[in-house]
Amino acid sequence: MRIILMGPPGVGKGSEAELLIKSFQIPHISTGDIFRELYKDRTTVGKIAKEYISRGELVPDDITNEIVRHRLSQPDVKKGFLFDGYPRNIEQAKALDEILAKKGCKLDAVINIDAPEEQIVERISGRRVCSTCGAVYHIHSKKPQVEGICDLDGGQLIQRNDDMPETVQRRLRIYKDQTAPVIGYYQEKGAIVYIDGTSTIAHTHAQVMKALGELN
Ligand SMILES: [Zn+2]
Questions:
Q1: 82-127, pLDDT tens digit by residue?
Q2: How far is the CA of 158 from the centre of ligand 1 (A)?
Q3: How far is the CA of 152 from the centre of ligand 1 (A)?
Q4: Helix and strand numbers, DSSP H then E, in the chain
Q5: CATH fold group of domain 2-115+179-215
Q6: Which of 160, 173, 176, 210 is catalytic?
Q7: What is the CA radius of gyration of the chain?
Q8: What is the pTM of this model?
Q9: Among 6, 68, 133, 181, which one is most buried in terms of CB atoms within 10 A?
Q10: Annotated catalytic, 69?
Q11: Is 71 a catalytic residue?
């Protein structure tokens, strides 16, 4: 199964990715992970990518695509793969199509999990994190026994800057601006599957599996 998984932060994409790679026994490929592996290898592409990242810049498309091409030549992708965070723009999407065409295969599905912005903001901004051990709580769905206090070690629960409503709204805006063209690209090809991410992890996964079953 060859899948691209898309969705804004806070929509449960990480949990769904884990379930999919288990269900289909396929590797989870995120470009961030590939970059980190390349640093260790000290390959030329890895070095170049690292320079961009350490300057806080995006790695150029041709380098990212080259890294993906290399990753897709490894034996563990024979059964398929799950891409997460790639392709980030239309150029990368086109490059991926070419890489796959040369290998004589194509994508099975582009899964886009989404939820209304207010709900995502409420989910993320309700998170509280223990300042001592890092355990994660939620003011509605995973309350500690005593408000503001970690069950495990009595540490104080705090809200991370990343989880503040304004920050979440900004991240969602950036995400939408970046991915709208990619979603449009796959929509035109009829390859995209929309999944409602407003419910539980189990319900989201059931919808994804049903949609993938209908494709075959
Ligand atoms: Zn704690």
A1: 999 899 899 999 999 999 999 999 999 999 999 999 999 999 999 9
A2: 11
A3: 5
A4: 8, 8
A5: Rossmann fold (3.40.50)
A6: 160
A7: 19
A8: 0.84
A9: 6
A10: no
A11: no
Could you tell me the residue ranges of all domains in the chain?
Answer: 2-115+179-215
| β-sheet with 127-130: strand ranges across | 136-138, 127-130, 157-158
Q: What is the dihedral of CA 198, 202, 206, 207, to 10 degrees?
A: 10
**What are 212's two structure tokens?**
């993938």
Q: Is 127 a catalytic residue?
A: yes
Check pLDDT > 70 for residue 216.
Answer: no
88 an active-site residue? yes
Q: What b/e readout covers 106-133, taking b as 16+ CB neighbours within 10 angstroms?
A: ebbbbbbbbbeeeebbbbbbbbbbbeee
Residues with CB under 5 A from ligand 1 (ion): 130, 132-133, 135, 150, 152-153, 155
- Distance (angstroms) between ligand 1 centre and the Cα of 89 equals 39
